[in-house]
Amino acid sequence: MSEIETSLIGFSRGDTSGDPFYASNPATGEQLAPAYASASDAEVDRAGELAELAAGSLAALSGSEKAKFLRTVADNVEGIVEDLVSVVTSETGLPEPRVRGETGRTSGQLRLFADLVEEGSWVDARIDHSIPERQPIPKPDLRSMLRPIGPVGVFCASNFPLAFSVAGGDTASALASGCPVIVKAHHAHPGTALAVGQAVIAAVKSCGLAEGTFSLLYGGGRTVGQRLVKHPALKAVGFTGSRSGGRALFELAGARPEPIPVYAEMSSVNPIFLLPSVLNERKEEFALGLQGSAVMGVGQFCTNPGVVFHDKGEAGDSFKSTYAELMSQAPASAMLHSGIRDAYGEGVSDRSGSSNVEVLTVAGDGRGAGGCEASTSAFATDARSYLGDASLADEVFGPSTLLVACEGREEMLEIARALEGQLTASVFGTASELSDSQDLVDILETKVGRLLFNQFPTGVEVCHSMVHGGPYPATTDGRSTSVGTGAILRFARPVCYQGFPPERLPKELDEENSLGIKRVVDGKRG
Amino acid sequence: MSEIETSLIGFSRGDTSGDPFYASNPATGEQLAPAYASASDAEVDRAGELAELAAGSLAALSGSEKAKFLRTVADNVEGIVEDLVSVVTSETGLPEPRVRGETGRTSGQLRLFADLVEEGSWVDARIDHSIPERQPIPKPDLRSMLRPIGPVGVFCASNFPLAFSVAGGDTASALASGCPVIVKAHHAHPGTALAVGQAVIAAVKSCGLAEGTFSLLYGGGRTVGQRLVKHPALKAVGFTGSRSGGRALFELAGARPEPIPVYAEMSSVNPIFLLPSVLNERKEEFALGLQGSAVMGVGQFCTNPGVVFHDKGEAGDSFKSTYAELMSQAPASAMLHSGIRDAYGEGVSDRSGSSNVEVLTVAGDGRGAGGCEASTSAFATDARSYLGDASLADEVFGPSTLLVACEGREEMLEIARALEGQLTASVFGTASELSDSQDLVDILETKVGRLLFNQFPTGVEVCHSMVHGGPYPATTDGRSTSVGTGAILRFARPVCYQGFPPERLPKELDEENSLGIKRVVDGKRG
Question: Is residue B302 flagged as an active site residue?
Fold first, then answer.
């Protein structure tokens, strides 16, 4: 390994002279070799130009050709799993089984999109035949389908170094649509990014695709990402990270001469609403499940359940004690990097100091050898205090839960109405209680991307029905999902062909439906 | 008729004390009675609150119930067609046949959306069944579908007082999705807005829907629209108008604490590219068609063809003379209002004064009795000048065409690459020439919502395949269409239900598919 690694600008490497930065091992604090050179302005621009040059040929690929490419990327990523175990664990502190699992999720995701584009119906093909004799004017022949939006910038997520990073969901869905991708590596796991980036580029080469299909940019600060978002070639942005970071990119993209969409998945406390039977009939089981979901991955999942609304009273008090006990037993673990750990510490400290907040458990501020260890925390308050203090609705990213005691059903509805946008909301209870709570469900539906019943929100299934999205501030674009096959729709736009000769139409729109896809023909869905 | 008309705030009327404004007849200049009172801040807020209150019950309507409502609106609008002929012609100067035609287009559009939601498959229902025995963790039951985005603000278009105003395409598609609508009337046709608004409210009442389903706000300036866009209840905005107006609303909506999408359809010069055979073989026929498209509706269609790229040379010179002659023969007509006429005058004057621009015909600055009459104009330049002067790419809204002579194919490709986003681009030539011009088609596809071959872009068919949209600055959201059934997708967002008991699922997602809609079940499209 060279002493300084550099960006992957298509098939070339960046210059070693850019500002260097290093990853470090969150478990040990050890600075990891090598250094990574931040991309220069010229390198960012070059990646943009290459992507622009590649866009046409990528857009012209058939579904089968795109599927072959995505499967090659999947194979290549799986092929380096042993390397990944070593580099990901050292850069993120995530345990080996998680790295293996996330590698499988990454390749599985790529293959799911491969199947989707090979089958081909996702393009929403629509055909309206001409009616030359129509009065007062003839009806023309019109045919439309989704086409790739153009080059996409992808920002790696700190909390999914594989499944939402270099070859993760944003990249897979953008490539599947036929868009070139420029990835900005996360500063905390540059080595992971390099290994996966090289796997992607090997696939670009072996499939004979254009050089600009993929680039990977390093940047220690914000400059590289900002320049990328402002590059005129870029047509959309995918991001997973903090609310402030996502909002900043959203505003930067909106201020461009040509504004572009930003799909930022940002912040969510994933509220859980308990109907009375839960604490009355299965308090321990629920508390155990909640604790498992809350501490999973050191609380660093976007769908971590951060707040639970329950009825006031004896059962509620007993639940708080049970939960406090369970959370205090969970061992401290290293978070992903010191920035996340710092933010967690501040969040816990602010919450501990809030008036009207009861500290159920905070196991101290020990940070271990690597400076990144975090203990679990749990807090309690009541609905009036929660509604009166906006900071209590903020996310404390990490293994922390806030229990909120409500004075019956009306207060729960009031809280539901006051919620900000969320990735998920969960309701626990009996089917009959749920049936009596349609008003609550109707409110929650307007606030979230995914509604769960008697299940915890962590564990986001990659499938066709998944919606990993939701109104702001869960995301900057509540019309979208970043997980599941629906994610491809973020990177596509409809194009209509009017009066085109049959032989110049895309295959998806030909008269004989040679691809055998589902289409809407003269208003009838096939 | 009362002396001062006021906003329709649900089933109530606004106060008469707001700043009054008047429409005027663009053909005569006559100020029209009555006055219209601008909505107060409290009235705008009240419309927002009512819409928020109505959102839940509207979202709960079945497709059939929504269809019934949309058809009632259509019937009611058709029922007042004689009144509309009188008020629309006096407020806009549009001729009676156009008013009758546009009324039919408006009701037809409402009925098309009624059919769409009654059939029901538009919701993109997806079901992934659970696999309880899956290792290492069970697969949950997941089901998703599109749900209404929430209250929508609609800004009436000056150039479509019916089909893109109070009960026009934006309103129809938003209501079809299940969203309450708050319309901001256009200041130039408030009487038209009132007649149609009352027809909508009559339908809300006769269908027994919530009061906040629909409101209509008057405002002489920008204050009312701005307050509407900033209202926290609002979840999306539809707009048709100027580039500066659309961009301002886009930025206002993006700066909200909760940013919301703005679908602004703004500005497009709808370029036409001529392949060599056109001027060599059918110059007169093409010139006549172009003139018809360019002067239609006094050039006030969004899809007006503003610029034509043709080969340099004798045929090109002869085409310029033919076209100049044709355009100079077109009679002057009243534009929609004095603001549009002023802007046209400035555009023509700027273009006339441009160096390197040849004035083919400008019939003078006469404005007729009403001050709104405009004569046609035509200009010519060459590709180098066009590429060197960004102002030549700007829209001159009105009956004006710019002919641009290109030094062969390479210069045409260069121009295509340099184009801003457009609603449409058209290519004229033989099928064999088109086949040799795939490079041009590929570039144009990335720039437009609709690509035409041997057809003029005016005349936007309302159907399933239509894409009336395109990259910025054609619209602020190139992923959308504002005409055709695809327009409903702008006002919907996906919601996923995980682990829900069968009886609590929306009908669209039930196991037996009781609605008989097309769905994706375990990845297979039905």
Answer: yes
